[in-house]
Amino acid sequence: MRALGGHTSNDSRMSDELGFESLVARYYGPLYQFAFSLTRTEADACDLAQQTFYIWATKGHQLRDGSKVKTWLFTTLHREFLNMRRKVVRFPHFELSEMEQELPAISPGMVNALDAARVVELLGQVNDPYQAPLALFYMEDYSYKEIADILEVPLGTVQSRISRGMAQLQQLIANGGSAPGSVEKEAHG
Q1: 111: domain CATH number?
Q2: pLDDT > 70 in the chain, percent
Q3: Of the residues 56, 90, 124, which one is the last residue of a structural domain?
Q4: Please, how many CA atoms are within 13 Å of residue 12, restricted to the half-sphere of its CB?
Q5: What is the reported pTM?
Q6: Structural domains counted in the chain
Q7: How confident is the model at residue 185 (pLDDT cuts 50, 70, 90)?
Q8: What's the domain range around 39?
């Protein structure tokens, strides 16, 4: 089926776009429902469905039998779910509210003593993957969705990185700017 991914003429790009839109219209609902049954969260289900269509847009032209599109999409979504689950096992996501008891207590006096420049300085000490989402969220007032678009990562990843980054930033604030377990490198002698 040419409209599902094959390129046979100069105007095939237009028919491919129309084919892609009709493919999304036809399969987004069932793919989302399948993803939701796997993830049990709307955000993750949306991410999986969108990722599946992204993969189709980049690799779908390789499918030779157009009658197998539905199977290909569902298989791809399931593989992406398994990849996502593997990452969650390696890098578990915890809601900040669930982990409050493990965070250091920061008194209002400590917060008031910090100025914005010091917070920006401490933000520079937060691990790299967490810096950009934190800065975009707290300094630029972007939504999670906007940050996900800017950084080209899933929404759940943005939420996780902001949560982990905030925990690191709070730890830095509580420790006066040094990461837990870090050793000051001073010249002795």
Answers
A1: 1.10.10.10
A2: 69
A3: 90
A4: 11
A5: 0.43
A6: 2
A7: very low
A8: 2-90
